[in-house]
Amino acid sequence: MSEHACRACRGRTGDLVLDLGEQPACDYFPRGDDPGPDPVYPLQMWLCSSCGLAQLVADPTVPEEPRGAEPAALVAQAADAVARVAATGLLAGGGRVAEYGSPHGGSWLELLADCGLKPVPDGEQAEVIVDCFGLMHAPDQFAALAERAARLADGGVLLLQYHSLDTIIRCGQWNALRHGHYAYYSTTALAAMLAAHGLRPRMAWHFELYGGTILLAASRDPDTRAWPDGQVSALLAADARAGVRDSAVLGGLHRDAEARARGLHDWLVARHSEGSTVLGYGAASRAVALLRRAGVDRALLPAVADASPAKQGLRMPGTDIPVVSPQRLNADQPDAVLLFLADLLTEVRAAFPRVEATGGRWVDVETLGQRQAPG
Ligand SMILES: [Zn+2]
User: Fold this and answer.
1) Helix, strand and coil percent figures for the chain, each rounded to 5
2) Ligand 1 being an ion, which residues bring their Cβ within 5 A of it?
3) Burial class for 156, CB neighbours closer than 10 Å (0-12, 13-18, 19+)
4) In this model, does residue 370 exceed pLDDT 80?
5) Which of 51, 126, 145, 187 could pair with 96 as two cysteines, CB 3.0-4.6 Å apart?
6) How far, in Å, is the centroid of ligand 1 from the Cα of 214?
7) In angstroms, what is the span from residue 50 Cα to ligand 1's centroid?
8) pTM higher than 0.85 for the full model?
9) Which of 1, 19, 16 is nearest to 289 (CA)?
10) Half-sphere exposure (Cβ direction) of 258: Cα atoms closer than 13 Å
11) Three-state DSSP class for 115?
């Protein structure tokens, strides 16, 4: 690990805190008749001791993530965020806007144009620079933030939205670690990164998206405007309580991941040995690392059903498990359906009543291998 230099501060001291082993790109679903093996790359999180940035270690140079359907949650989030920022008067001055968007969608530009902001071409300066889940996709974090800082016009504001490391720790979201997502920001680490470019966080908003997402407004020093008290310092205090710079705390993500993988594997082996049939539901990219870490193949899980016709006929990356039409749930009458998208439980129970009518049950994969409360 001595070879790794921090993507933000170039520091070389730090700790490997989460290691999910060799993993395929989780959005690359090969065709069902593609025999593989799929290319795999180490999927590891490293915590920089110098600036505190949690980051992806390897740069496997995977192709750009395919742009799927724009998630409705991101579109709703953009509208909510712009409304909340506008309500503070921060956009009242109008001016120019530049956006560094997420490849997953959720652009703010139209909403900001409605607020009177005028988009500028690439490379030009702007009074408002928006980065909504964009920065995390940059392998070179220092260069990416330097570019944003350089484009910030005098008196301008940089709006940065990120899924907070505090949330990832609090909710045990080890699954947030993905190829192509190079950085996992705490407010603490981001403040240090911003300082290296002459910027300072001034205001913050909290959103429920992904269990806890932060939008930070930063501006260049000095800045004599009156900013609200306490918002940023409250986030920094929450970070300190969560232990965002403590590699032992972040190591809990690794223990969670191992427990989930073992729990899934052991549960499937037990069902297999008692002769139960199990199918999966929800060919989600977040299921990929779990299935592979758990060493699950089609002998243990013969198929994963998915409602999206685009995914049917494909294969779960890094495994031999085919993605099939939900018709299989009716045809096979499985004893259990392993649900990889827990938030769909109510919906799938209603959509596929035959599963339970024929004696099957839905099992939320998140409940397997969960940390047990002590005592
Ligand atoms: Zn660093």
Assistant:
1) 35, 25, 45
2) 6, 8-9, 11, 48, 50-51, 53
3) buried
4) no
5) 126
6) 20
7) 5
8) yes
9) 19
10) 9
11) coil
